[in-house]
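dumping the sequnces here before i forget
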Amino acid sequence: MKLRLARLWRIAATGISFATFGAAGLVCGSVVLPIVRAWPGTEPERDFRCQYAVRRFFRAFVRMVEALGLMKVAVHGAERLQEPGQLVVANHPTLLDAVFVMSVMPRADCVVKSAVTTNPFMRSVARCAGYLSNDLEGELVDACVSRLRSGRSLLLFPEGTRSPRGALGPFQRGAAHIAFRSGRPFRPVVIRCDPPGLMRGQKWYDVADRSLEISIECCDLIYVEDAPAPGRGRGAAARRATAELRDFFGKRLQTPEG
Amino acid sequence: MASRDEIFGWVVDVLREEFDFTSEALAMDTHLIDDLDLDSIDAIDMTVRLEELSDISFSDSDLKSMRTIRDVVDLIDGRR
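..and the predicted 3d for all of it:
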């Protein structure tokens, strides 16, 4: 009986959290961020101000879901994300991974699915904060490289979508190409969720039997080899770097320690 | 003027040098995405080399129309 009540509470609290996130996204994107953005400054300064506001918004949301007993979020090595100009790559087990990671990054550019740029609750937030849509195709790599070279940090999920349950999805090679062209190493962030929750295809009311324990592990840098020129082996180098990166995540996820 | 066999040879050489594929894995009907797992960035890198060899330029729509090695050979052969 007690367990059933606890589960019912988590379903209600999850609904409240999603509703709050959507409402806050609407208010933030349609009122707060446009005002923050309208304040005088260069384009990067406006982006940074909005990204700082988004960080505060995400951090408040994480505190709220923790206070509601839905999850506990433990961040290990957050100081590693404070340096600007980092190429941050993370696995993607849950719906809220970007929220968890960006809540501890001072400023972060992010590549978002094109669906986010049409989502009524988040599109204004994404636009005001200058996030990049993954439907830019050939221009996306150049845009990411340009931002990294100007000292901005970038968060990428190489799987491109949420991971399958208890596993890693295939990694796309865009992150490796961005690393080659920008000369930036990878900053891997390993995300664990126990028990699994907020997964791809899972209904919001399909909650776990207990609160989620989220571990965000910010790891040491991974340096990539000097890339050959295009047409002279860069494609093979990107495949190797991507395979090594995926292998790193696979091995880290085998270990329970966050 | 290069024959179709020579153009096929260029494409095979580029795919071997750029992506470390073996010659045995590359035939006229080899699918660039399904068989070789080429993505949009790979396609651009491949055409950079082919433009040097064939002295023709590829447009974005050319890249999107390439499905198999035969498509690449046909495209170059048709532009000569």
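Chain B has four helices and no strands.
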